[in-house]
Specification:
The chain is α+β, with helices and mostly antiparallel strands. The protein has a single domain, classed as Alpha-Beta Plaits (2-Layer Sandwich). The protein has a 4-stranded antiparallel sheet with strand order 2-3-1-4, covered by helices on one side. The termini are close together.
Length: 66
């Protein structure tokens, strides 16, 4: 499981864009977006770098949480 802080995720359209982008590189992944905390949690994806890149390519600024 990998979590990202995505401060510029502000609405349900953002959630859909991020979810679609993650599924484009990791179709098997489970994506949980929490708008209140601006957190995206991805489980089932083995390459967090590809997931992070997909979120960036969708126009967002993910910061991996440790």
């Amino acid at each position: 499981m990998t979590s990202f802080q995505v401060i510029d995720m502000t609405c349900n359209h953002c959630v859909k864009s991020i979810t679609t982008s993650v599924h484009s590189v990791a179709p098997e992944a489970s994506v949980l977006c929490d708008l209140a905390s601006h957190t995206v949690t991805v489980s089932g994806a083995h390459e967090s770098q590809r997931v992070e890149s997909a979120i960036r390519e969708a126009g967002f600024t993910p910061v991996k949480k440790e």
